[in-house]
Amino acid sequence: MSLAPRAVLVHRTTEYEELVARHGTHGQAAFFLASRGRDLEEVAERHRRTRRASAEVTAAIPSTWRQTRVERGDLDRFLFGPEDVVVVVGQDGLVANVAKYLAGQPVVGIDTDPGRNPGVLVRHRPQDVGELLPLVLGGGAGVSELTMVEVVADDTQRLVALNEIYLGAAGHQTVRYRLGLEGDGGVAEAQASSGVLVGTGTGATGWIRSVWQERGGDGLELPDPSERRLLWFVREAWPSPATGTSLVAGELSAARRLTLTVESERLIAFGDGIESDAVELTWGQRVTVGVCEERLRLVG
């Protein structure tokens, strides 16, 4: 007997909730912000809009469906099922946060604050949910398959990200390593830099784009979100008698991998800005970075 479809509503704690949790009461949070020239009402209104949107989405889920909720901080402990439809209620970044925990489940992004969010990944409004979910289940909703990036270490540690992966020192200080490309006969360059950034076409709307613009494009074209191609950049490579700067930018097709061998006591790799969920690496370890086989299936 097959299970009924399940809507998994992914949300995050609002700024208002974080402030009240930190300061104890609404009044104390208001006093704290007022002392810094801010008005709590602006934050509280965004909280109310988010909660109204969440309630509207919940009410629109078909009565024959199962449903559950998961907060962003609990994603690494939540088990998604193959029958799930993931409904992300919040900002674009929340879609990136959930992407690495999925295995092909469709994702519906709901924008709770149109005009404030770019709406790149949260493409729908709460009022769309009632009509959209049956279409998703029946295969009638358009789905974009977005490319993801992965890093794999020689001890089998693996990390996946939707936007970009950063490899470097915690705190972004100088780190030493050897950088190369698979298929180049083992040729690698010793480098000292503030890290390496490898990003997707989705990431080309954020951190990767800012580095790309700063470099004047480096003769590289930004990939589309669905294109199985990545861009990589070395940040602030330092030339010295022992370290070079000839490999500082490039692109990776689906078949190519960037390789990095650690020559520092500690190096980390994290995705989509979540440094708390990082792969820890040390002297002599080798990692490869490239296009991930799994893709994010985004509705709309």
TrEMBL record:
<keyword id="KW-0418">Kinase</keyword>
<dbReference type="InterPro" id="IPR017438">
    <property type="entry name" value="ATP-NAD_kinase_N"/>
</dbReference>
<dbReference type="InterPro" id="IPR016064">
    <property type="entry name" value="NAD/diacylglycerol_kinase_sf"/>
</dbReference>
<keyword id="KW-0808">Transferase</keyword>
<protein>
    <submittedName>
        <fullName>NAD(+)/NADH kinase</fullName>
    </submittedName>
</protein>
<dbReference type="GO" id="GO:0016301">
    <property type="term" value="F:kinase activity"/>
</dbReference>
<dbReference type="InterPro" id="IPR017437">
    <property type="entry name" value="ATP-NAD_kinase_PpnK-typ_C"/>
</dbReference>
